[in-house]
Design brief:
Elements (H helix, E strand, L loop, with lengths): L1 H18 L2 H8 L3 H10 L17 H8 L4 H8 L5 H6 L8 H6 L4 H14 L6 H7 L8 H7 L3 H8 L17 H7 L3 H10 L14 H6 L16 H9 L22 H16 L1 H26 L36 H8 L2 H10 L14 H7 L3 H9 L1 H6 L12 H6 L7 H6 L3 H18 L15 H8 L1 H33 L18 H28 L5 H5 L1 H32 L5 H21 L1 H21 L12 H6 L1
Helix pairs in contact: 2-3, 3-5, 4-5, 10-11, 12-13, 13-17, 16-17, 17-19, 18-19, 18-20, 20-21, 25-27, 27-28, 27-30, 28-30, 30-31, 30-32
Length: 669
């Protein structure tokens, strides 16, 4: 078999060599398009223009089409006799693609227009030559329009669509993958929106695995704004994100007949033009703008799919409501004959934390919140199991359905919501990814999940045993044993290292307290005692000593603490954060003391720019320390947020200061 293939390849190369097409192909490989043009201009055998040049059976027309070289294909077409045009464009390569298939994968709309006009000029419309070329399918069953959509060439797809009659024949290939599916998979959401406007029935189509396009979107959390929340270190990036417009051009994906319906003022056009110019010169802004446009188009597509795809609303909950809590192990009799079935789009969105899809589906059809999967899991099981706190918070607000139905459901394996927390799979939502600065904080996050879920389930469910005979607490300790070991080791090593640094800082500032900058006069009085910078030096030195010694105490208290699960819930992480904060301020005040000393010594001797450089250098270590430890302060920020929420629960909101009130109450005020 292999020998036959080798012989076939060898025969093809002999044919190519015999036709003398090695030279133009070599020129094409090297991007020497002028050499390729001159070869065919000099060669009188015009059949070589549509003869096979490569082992993939590409002709010169195929190569010119996907090269995207401007005017190359037009130049070759002009060399060809008019009577041979259709024959040349019809030739297929090994993938079954003709010239239009290759042109469709590029942005060469002008090239496509040229070919269409040339065909209309040579052949009568009733001959159907153009339609035959545009409806031809390759080995995968793809037409040129399908190929254009697959490659995200919206303008090309729009133009080719105007040249064919019935578009439905272009909407599906051999493997049942619809044209809308391929657009969503390729993340060409602008193209998908245009397709859905042309045929709303595409929203209900399923691919060979039974997935609709809404299913696919629910599996793509990275294309939504909720997944791309900017961390505390990316404030500038977040600011730029909000400044950037949602579109690149003025209504570049709208239908031709609807373009005038969307108002676009001159100021908006200028604003977009300004950002386009900036994006050309700054790759980071260009990348951020692409992300924002993707978020915007993905959200718009979600709205359309939720409205047009009714398949997700057709569901039945086949659940055994006779199940009660169990205080001992029972036989695990799970039905294995159900077969694999894709999760409902709502559960897929919940597992990936896509709040945009969740919100739109609940808004469109609130009853879907009660959907239960084949393995008897509801949205809370999925959100908790995948640690998606944003989804959990939204469902938690729906108190009636949550308390009566969702929180009390036991799945087919006998697991309550608390068991799903205890499973401890490596699922981390966006918030967990941001806050988990180390194993200790990861364990703290898991313990907080356990506490939050314990609060919403019926009290008697805490003692329930699943089909493996384990309560949620037993399962939690078993599954998180390794994480506990890592957390213990990490927090010990971190505390030891930081306590060493704190002692070093304390030693330095203690010694500095007895080294007066500028020296003393004959009477023993400091020379710079009347200078405000001397006072600053003294205060900062004392404060630094106090902070560093207090941080040592905090780190030593960690090392002497028991390292059990309960200690990692609040006590140990809080002590570590307080110790880090004190150490940070001790380093900061030490550098302030150092800067004050430098100022006292050089105030009358150096130029302004020299002093500025010295002060900047003095604060460089502090800046680096803050930057390196920012993940820990993200966790600290969360701790402050939790404290704030507790204060709001205790005190009536109207008595709180404005910055602690909700936006609604501030508006009323």
């Amino acid at each position: 078999m292999e020998r036959d293939l080798e012989e076939g390849k060898e025969e093809k190369w002999k044919t190519i060599s015999r036709l003398g097409l090695g030279e133009p192909y070599l020129a094409a490989l090297n991007g020497q398009w002028d050499v390729m043009k001159r070869f065919f201009e000099k060669n009188e055998n015009r059949e070589q223009l549509y003869s096979q040049m490569t082992v993939e059976e590409d002709t010169a027309f195929h190569i010119a089409a996907y090269s995207e070289e401007k005017d190359l294909l037009q130049h070759l077409v002009k060399l060809l006799p008019a009577s041979k045009l259709f024959e040349a464009l019809k030739v297929k390569n090994k993938q079954g693609s003709n010239t239009f298939h290759e042109v469709a994968t590029t942005d060469g709309v002008e090239t496509a227009k040229f070919l269409v006009e040339k065909l209309q000029e040579v052949y009568e419309p009733d001959e159907g030559k153009l339609e035959e070329l545009l409806t031809a399918k390759n080995t995968l069953g793809e037409t040129p329009i399908y190929r254009a959509v697959a490659h995200g060439r919206t303008k090309m797809a729009k133009y080719l669509a105007t040249q064919v009659g019935d578009l439905s024949s272009h909407f599906q290939r051999k493997d049942a993958m619809s044209i809308l599916h391929i657009a969503v998979i390729g993340q060409h959401f602008d193209t998908a929106i245009w397709l859905l406007r042309n045929d709303k029935g595409l929203a209900k189509k399923k691919e060979q695995n039974g997935l609709t396009c809404l299913h696919l979107l629910a599996k793509m959390p990275h294309v939504f704004r909720s997944y791309s929340e900017f961390s505390h270190t990316n404030k500038l990036k977040k600011f730029l994100y909000y400044c950037l417009p949602s579109q690149f051009e003025d209504d570049d994906v709208s239908d031709d007949g609807n373009e005038a319906q969307i108002p676009s003022t001159i100021s908006i056009k200028r604003y977009r033009a300004m950002w386009r110019a900036i994006a050309k010169g700054c790759r980071a802004i260009d990348k951020l703008w692409k992300i924002k446009r993707m978020h915007s188009s993905a959200l718009e597509l979600t709205k359309s799919l939720v409205e047009e795809d009714y398949t997700w609303k057709d569901f039945r909950c086949e659940v055994n409501y006779d199940k009660t809590i169990s205080l001992m192990k029972v036989d695990a009799t799970v039905d294995k004959d159900r077969g694999e079935q894709p999760y409902h789009p709502l559960l897929e969105a919940a597992s990936n934390g896509i709040v945009e899809i969740f919100d739109k589906m609940i808004e469109s059809y609130p009853q879907v919140i009660g959907y239960i999967s084949k393995d008897e899991k509801n949205i809370l099981h999925v959100a908790i199991g995948h640690r998606q706190r944003d989804i959990f918070r939204r469902v938690k607000k729906m108190e009636v359905i949550m308390k009566c139905r969702l929180a009390s459901l036991i799945d087919e394996n006998g697991n309550t919501l608390l068991h799903h927390v205890a499973e401890g799979k490596t699922y981390y939502g966006r918030e967990s990814r941001e806050q988990a600065a180390g194993p200790a904080f990861q364990l703290q996050e898991e313990l907080r999940w356990l506490e939050d879920v314990r609060y919403i389930i019926p009290a008697h469910y805490i003692m329930h045993r699943n089909k493996n005979g384990k309560t949620a607490d037993e399962l939690f300790q078993e599954k998180h044993a390794d994480l506990l070991k890592h957390a213990q080791k990490w927090i010990k090593e971190t505390s030891q290292s930081c306590s060493t640094v704190s002692v070093l800082v304390a030693t330095v500032v203690f010694a500095a307290a007895y080294t007066v900058p500028g020296g003393n006069d004959a009477s023993g009085r400091p020379n710079f005692i009347d200078s405000p910078f001397f006072v600053l030096f003294t205060i900062m030195d004392v404060v630094s000593l106090a902070f560093s010694l207090t941080s040592v105490v905090m780190f030593l208290s960690i090392l002497s603490s028991p390292f059990e699960y309960e200690n990692f819930r609040i006590s140990l992480p809080r002590k570590l954060l307080i110790g880090f904060t004190l150490l940070f301020f001790s380093v900061t005040t030490t550098m302030l003391s150092f800067a004050a000393t430098i100022f006292l010594l050089l105030h009358f001797q150096k130029k302004a720019w020299t002093k500025t450089l010295i002060y900047t250098t003095a604060f460089f270590p502090v800046s680096m320390f803050a930057l390196m430890q920012f993940p820990l302060y993200a966790a600290f920020n969360k701790l402050l947020h939790t404290i704030t929420e507790k204060i709001k629960e205790v005190y009536p909101e109207k008595f709180l200061p404005p910055y602690l009130r909700t936006k609604e109450l501030n508006k009323l005020s």
